[in-house]
């Protein structure tokens, strides 16, 4: 049982400004006012609904975790929508009209998939009145609190998933205005996609599949972040005698008297840390040093061994500097594709597969030949790729089932072989 304080919607949205900015890019609204009217109002309603409540005891468990999970699922859903072809079985005119509606419906379904999740794991009680929050009766959590503190009581066992309850809560969140933008078929798929069940039962529509993948991506992202917590360093610090011996290794040999009663103790080697292990990968191997104590204390040595020539210390390579140089290096694809994230990710993945030999492309006289049949492996429709290539003047020609890319983009995928003179 923990005590929490609420936060208003503006404060919660400001804490996730970067994710909201990425969602704005994927929404691709020409007028910023349209984004605020259609998209941002839904995120604001979700912030008012969740306030600072956690999502689950094991995942997004901090205050405000439920709203953070909602923003992350919405972001991953919009990211996975790139290259998807909605209403593919419809005529071209109707498909052009329905595609923006499907994209908006995907965003709405992603925002509403976890509305009931906190109530499956917790009870929320106001501190001043001792009253428990009932979503169906009290509405938005932040409005019901009216600025008062609240307590979080964990249930002994989570309640079962109820799809209908999530859909009813989504109806109260979205409102009639947000739903009025959608036609009947899109509206039907929207409420079919608001399904918090982890696995589908029976037929799964395209909208629900993307939302389910976005939920899985957000959950996996959170688990990886939680596993990145490092354990405290348990290395035993060396003693003063060991530090003195390391600083002056010739001191035992120069001493005229030796104490036979005191046995020589080997210094305790500290446990290498993760950073030291990573840095060691970039250093040249060093031969192990000869033990100095055994040489100095040999009682019957007739001749002194000549001192070993001093070897220069190996040059230490800064791995962090190399990583920064690679990150700061300009991306040739991004500079050529005009900042299009979807096209940049596609061509980067294509170039990696071509380098690894997974994809076969060849150079023609006018450009790089790219088969259309391999586009399905990257989740991008051929019509979408062709349209973007034409806008960027990167498509030289089309020949049957093959695309001929311009030389300036083709050389980034596969260098053109030198022609003999």
Provide structural commentary:
The protein has 20 helices and seven strands. With 421 residues, it is α+β, with helices and mostly antiparallel strands. It has two domains: 2-226, Hypothetical protein af1432, CATH 1.10.3210.40; 332-413, Arc Repressor Mutant, subunit A. The chain has a four-stranded antiparallel β-sheet with strand order 4-5-7-6. The chain has a three-stranded antiparallel β-sheet with strand order 1-3-2. The radius of gyration is 32 Å and the shape is flat. The protein starts with a strand and ends in an 8-residue tail after the last helix. Pfam families: TraI_2 (PF07514). Residues 241-270 are annotated as: Disordered. Residues 32-238 form the Uncharacterised domain. InterPro entries: Unchr_helicase_relaxase_TraI.
How would you concisely characterize the structure shown here?
This protein has about 425 residues and is an alpha+beta fold.
What distinguishing features does this structure have?
alpha+beta; 3-stranded antiparallel beta sheet; Unchr_helicase_relaxase_TraI; Arc Repressor Mutant, subunit A; Hypothetical protein af1432; 2 domains; 4-stranded antiparallel beta sheet; 421 residues
